[in-house]
Amino acid sequence: MSWDKVFIPNREGKRLAALVFEPEDRARCLVVAAHGFRGSKENGGRIYSLGQKLAERGGSLVAFDFAGSGESEGDFTQVTLSGQANDLKDVVDWACSRVDKPLVLLGRSFGGSTTLVEASKDERVRGVVLWSTPVFLVETFSAMMPEQFEAMKKGLEVSITDDWGEFRLGPGFAADLYNHNMVEYISGLRDRPVLIVHGLKDEVVSPQNARFLGEALRENAEVHLVEGSDHRFTTSHEIRENLTLAWLERHFLKEA
Q: Is the domain defined by 2-135+181-251 classed in CATH 3.40.50.1820?
């Protein structure tokens, strides 16, 4: 297993930082991972474990920073779901030009929402993994930042403080959420397999989002609601990782 850091240009000319994990032999599948709101490609360092174990099983992983996040160029103040979907599409195009194998998108939290946008429109996507993913976007973000969300709806730029410090967010973030029909995106997955992993103690994104996804996708979905796990799977990330690897092995990593 080897990994490299690369920079992938998006359609606006911004350089998106990415980590690429590759198996020693030819890959049997390609996974592109999208991080959550205010997150980064490393996922607190856990992406290295997932990348190594996936490579050992014959999979390739590309984990990247959205524009304005992590080591990528751009201004986080201008982040929107539409912009992230464009970034994901650009990274997918780059990754698929290098690895011509079944493509799986993995999204954590808001990166999962972004994954739903891209997967519904891109027939190259053969499977989807959703970690702690919101589909009730307005409800989730208005609960997370009630005063600021209302201010953004009025066209104001806002200041928000979270566990990583203070940051600013432009009004386009809230306005853009109303442009996206998540139910339509979910229905666009059609017969592709989807893994849904969500903590029952998630304090940011209600587990009801995962239940809704499971009911909408029916037999195509494998849903795991993990007892005692919070939004970040702080003390149970190995459970999430093992569920993901086992699902990938069943669907995409079998020997030809």
A: yes
The 10 Å Cβ neighbour count of residue 187 is 12
Phi, psi of 138 (to 5 degrees): -60, -45
Contact between residue 248 and residue 126 where contact means Cβ atoms under 8 Å apart: no
Percent of the chain that is helix, strand, coil (3-state, to 5): 40, 25, 35
Query: Would the pTM of this model clear 0.85, i.e. be above it?
Result: yes
pLDDT in tens, 204-249: 999 999 999 999 999 999 999 999 999 999 999 999 999 999 999 9
- Distance, in Å, from the CA atom of 51 to the CA atom of 44, rounded to the nearest integer, reads 13
Rounded (10°) CA dihedral 135, 137, 140, 142: -170
Report DSSP state, residue 157.
-
**Residues 95-132: b if buried by 16+ CB within 10 A, e if exposed:** bbeebebbbbbbbbbbbbbbbbbbbbebeebbbbbbbb
Three-class DSSP category at 26? coil
Q: Which amino acid is at 13?
A: G
Helix ranges (DSSP H) in the chain: 46-56, 81-98, 110-121, 137-144, 146-153, 172-177, 182-187, 208-217, 237-251
| Token pair of 55 as six digits | 């490579």
Domain ranges of the chain: 2-135+181-251
